[in-house]
Amino acid sequence: MSLYEICVLIHDTSIGTAIRESRLMFPVIEGTHLLAMGASAGIIAFSDLRLLGWVMKKEPVSEVMGRLLPWAIGGFVVVMITGILLFWADAESLYRNRWFRYKVLFPFLAALNALIYHSTIHRKVRAWDRAPTPPRSARLAGLFSLALWALVIAAV
Amino acid sequence: MTRAKLAVFVTSLLVTGAPLLAHHSFVAEFDINAPVTLTGVVTKVEWTNPHTYFYVDVTDQTGSVVNWACQTGSPNALENRGWKRASLKAGDTVSVRAYRAKAGTNFVNARSVQLPDGRWVFAGSSGDFGPER
Question: Which end of chain A, C or N, has fewer beta carbons within 10 A?
Answer without folding.
Answer: N
